[in-house]
Structures are given as structure tokens and as C-alpha cells.
Amino acid sequence: MSRCMQCHAQFHEPLHILNFYKATPLICPSCEQQWEDMCLTKDDTSDVRRCQRCLKVLAEDEITCLDCAFLEQSYRLIDQLYCTYQYKGMVRETIHQYKFLKDVALAEVIASKVRLPQEQFDYIVPIPSPVERDRGRTFNPVKVVLDQMHVHYTEMLETRIRPKQSALGKMKRARSANPFTFNSEINIANKSILLVDDIYTTGLTVHNAGAQLYVRKIRKLGVLTFAR
């Protein structure tokens, strides 16, 4: 008998040849299904179109992604967003419980769901949060998940304390000064970089961080997030 790390219900997984050598599941079948229901492709049909770059569902009258067009006025766009889950339902509840209610044990659940892209990158770089915020939380939500995934990452960005981005409108966020600075001696010219963040919302956070990398003549910039 196992206990689900999400709903804390006890569950029993019947033993058979397909799971005999597998580790015990972290979450129960009900929670597992709720994660599956939040997959970005779950409700896609032949009529659903997504931006190939940022994975946003395009409106019927959108020929090109308006979000990317808005960002392109001020930034060089990322090459690709890699993300599996929508930020709603079980996924949103889990990230909120983990990040804001400091249930750090859920990092193991999130790590089990996040998948690195198959493409190879020279450096994997976590999006930083202000030191003061990490100190109050007692952990960095992105780095702890990467640690759980046993991913080697390189810290080369830092950021100052700023208003929580979820509390600001899109235009206010766009007009804010870039909060990120590059703090590494590494020469990243012609390198490919994978930025990792928890949530992709407007794209302004990762494009601000990307601006500090593009100016150093990187070759490619991908972004991995836990949810979109």
C-alpha cells in the first residue's frame, strides 16, 4: 500500500510483469489522470492551432501569434518553448502548493513530470529569483526540481527584488526595466542555452533573461517550463 504525495490517499498498484522492476508510483491513479488531463495536447483537435514557437493556442483569426509579435517589438525571440502541461487544474494546484506554500516535497512529483528536450544544449541555466525571496522561501523552486532530476545546470544570471510578476498587468511588465544581469566569466558566444523556469505566462521573464544572453552572441535559446 502506498500513499499519494498529492492527495495523501492510500492506493494499491497491482503487481504485474510491466511494473515489477519499476519504482513505486509517487501519486495515485486519480491524480495521475488529472495530470494527464492537463497535457497541452490533451484537448487538441485538427481545428486547434498552436504557435510553433511559444505553444499558445491561436485564435481563429490569428494568422501569426500576437503574443510573439508583441514581444518581437522589444526582444529577439526565443527559438522554442518546451512544455508539456497547461497551468491549470492539478498542475496549477501542485505548483502553487510547492512554490507558495513551501511544500518542497512536491519537487519530486514535478521532477517526475518534467521532460528535458531531446535536443542537446551547451548550458542549462535556471531562471534566478531574488536571493531575499529564496531565503524567505528557504529554497529555489527551479533549482530544487532540477536537482531532483539530476540535471547539471550552470548559474550565470542573477536578479534583484521586484514586484511579483503575477500581480502586474502585461503592459506594466513590458515597461519595467530588465531585472536580470549576467554574472558569469563563461564565454557563451556561439553556444546553445536552455533556460528553465517554472511557468510561462506572457513570456516577458524569459525574454528579459534571454536579452542578457543574446547580447553575448549565443547561437540558440530554448526555454523549458513546468507549465504554460
Describe the protein's architecture and organization.
Helix 4 packs across helix 6. By secondary structure, the protein is α/β, with parallel strands linked by helices. It contains 8 helices and 8 strands, in the order E-E-H-H-E-H-H-E-H-H-E-H-E-E-H-E. It folds into 2 domains: 2-33, no CATH class; 66-227, Rossmann fold. The model has no long low-confidence stretch (mean pLDDT 90).
Briefly say what this structure is.
The chain is of the alpha/beta class and 228 residues long.
Features:
228 residues, alpha/beta, Rossmann fold, 2 domains, four-stranded parallel sheet, two-stranded antiparallel sheet, 8 strands, 29% helix, PRTase_dom, Amidophosphoribosyltransferase, PRTase-like, glycosyltransferase
Mean pLDDT comes to: 90
Tell me the number of strands.
8
CATH topology assignment of the largest domain: Rossmann fold
Considering DSSP H and I runs of 4 or more, what fraction of the residues is helical? 25-40%
Q: Which regions are unreliable across 5 or more consecutive residues at pLDDT < 50?
A: none
Output the radius of gyration. 19 Å
- Through-space gap between termini: 34 Å
What order do the helices and strands follow? EEHHEHHEHHEHEEHE
**Biggest sheet statistics:** 4 strands, parallel
Topology:
Elements: E1 2-3, E2 10-11, H1 29-37, H2 66-72, E3 80-82, H3 89-99, H4 107-113, E4 123-126, H5 131-137, H6 141-148, E5 157-159, H7 170-175, E6 180-182, E7 192-199, H8 204-214, E8 220-227
Parallel strand pairs: 3-8, 4-7, 7-8
Antiparallel strand pairs: 1-2, 5-6
Helix pairs in contact: 4-6
